[in-house]
Amino acid sequence: MTQTAVAPVPVRRAAHTAAQLQPLPPTRSRSRFALPVLLAGTCLIVLDFFIVNVAMPSIQTDLHASSAAIEWVVAGYGLTFAVFLITAARIGDRIGRRLMFTAGVGLFTLASLACGVAPNPDVLVVARLVQGAGGAMISPTVLALIASMYDGAERQRAVGTYATVMGLAAAGGQLVGGALLRLDIAGLEWRSVFLLNVPVGVVILATVRRCLPESRAEQAQRVDVIGLVLATVGLAALVLPLIDGRSESWPAWCIASLASAPVFLGEFVWWQRRQARAAGSTLIDPAWFGNRDFALGIVTQFGFWTGQASYFLVLALYLQVGRGLSALGSGLVFSILAAAYLLSSMKAAAMVARYGRNVIVAGASLLVAGHLATLVAVVGAGDNIAALAPGLLLAGAGMGCCLAPITAIVLSRADAQQAGGMSGLLSTIQQVAGAAGVALIGLLFFHAAAANTPHAVAHGFELSLGALAALLAGVAAAARRLPSR
User: 393-407: string of b/e by CB count within 10 Å (b at 16+)?
Assistant: First the structure.
């Protein structure tokens, strides 16, 4: 499920980071408080990605937001998260990971406050972009700090706890969001979804210096500023018109932006190759793509994550606008999917050890079956919400079978020098794919649901489910060509 989306990638990165850092002997205060502080920071960025879905209809109504603005609230967070992820990790290696973690929490907390008091959609979207940048500063430093503080069995337990918390935050985000909207604390409605982060962030900032040691990489790379700019402009040129084009009736600037995206991204690839030949600093090592298994894994990763954030968005809108459920009722329906996800993800590692890539093939196939079963329920179930349960259970189980195993299989042949960078790239691809999926599936959904009536929204959801089922069928086909173990 999405930012947990994030979970398996950093877990792999921790193994690489551990190989490079000399572990610090944990003090009594570190062993007791350091991990909870880091996990609280992790909860901020994961929970915020998922909790916002159930608040979308309320935001749209209260701020009179367009469908494009709603898409940007979701996709913008993932886009800036993706763009700054690798760069933030490298800056943290140089200036200190505790300092980077602290700065990230501070930025995220301020951006959450801005989201919570946003007077209009434009301010909310900008604040979400800043939140994504703050999340990118937090995510890679958490596992680097875990690797520097713990060793051996302690490190394994810490990373296992980290992965569990990530999964729980992702699975419980929709339900927490629904409960907050139902309680309507101080009449804040949807704003409480963002303002919840503020006291948590303040507590983290108040304790971080006392609980966490500072650590730096012995040989930190310089930041590839030119590569960062080219990647940022290229991705923005691609995603911006996909989100805004439909509502703006595809003006000339949208066409020009789409046409320029391949140019900027091509220049980025050329620059990375040039830097690699000159032994300079790169964001991505082009040599990785000479590994067929890794290149195919990137395709599989991109396809899988393209379907995740978009699915959560259209499902939340369908449940609340198409079916008239409250935010809490929507969160309870999401908990069906979340329960299946948690159960299957707990078994995923053991299944991969025994069955290898077949677990991913089976997971993608379960997702296809789940989307098709949900489609049948939407078309023929009338007002029976319970008819959605089989499809949601299948989809949740499929997500759990795909999420961590894709990363594990792709990185299984990477050496110690490659694993950290490759896992960072996979995490970046995850975020880019999420933003692209919201844009592309959003085109289909919001075009069909333009009337914003229950019937129109249901029709948009049906079309989206069909497209997502086709996408996941492609993921299953690609997964068959991954390494067997």
Answer: bbbbbbbbbbbbbbb
Render pLDDT for 256-274 as a digit per residue (tens, 0 to 9): 999 999 999 999 989 999 9
How many alpha carbons fall within 13 Å on the CB side of residue 74?
36
Residue 185 CB-half CA count within 13 A: 11
Contact 101, 138 (CB under 8 A): yes
Side-chain-side CA neighbours of 205 within 13 Å: the count stands at 15
| Tokens representing residue 61 in the block | 């109504």
The conformation of residue 318, written as its DSSP 8-state character, comes to I
| Distance set, CA 358 to CA 301, 405, 409, 482 (Å) | 15, 10, 11, 9
- Give dist(CA 472, CA 372) in Å, integer: 11
Count CA atoms within 13 Å of residue 481 on its CB side.
Answer: 13
Distance CA 239, CA 260 (A): 12
CA 357 from centroid of its chain's CA atoms: 22
Query: How many CA atoms are closer than 13 Å to the CA of 227, on its beta-carbon side?
Result: 21
**Mean pLDDT throughout 148-158?**
74
DSSP states along 375-441: HHHHHH-TT-GGGGHHHHHHHHHHHHHHHHHHHHHHTTT--HHHHHHHHHHHHHHHHHHHHHHHHHH
Which phi and psi angles does 63 have, rounded to 5°? -95, 0
| Per-residue tokens: 472 | 């996941």
Q: Which residue has the tokens 């490079």?
A: 20
Residue 310's closest CA among 439, 428, 398?
439
Extract the tokens encoding 432.
């880019």
How far lies 308's CA from each of 9, 33, 240, 447, 450, in Å?
16, 33, 19, 20, 22
Side chain identity at 14, as an amino acid letter? A
Predicted confidence at residue 354, as pLDDT, reads 86
Give whichever of 1-5, 198-202, 432-436 has the largest mean pLDDT: 198-202
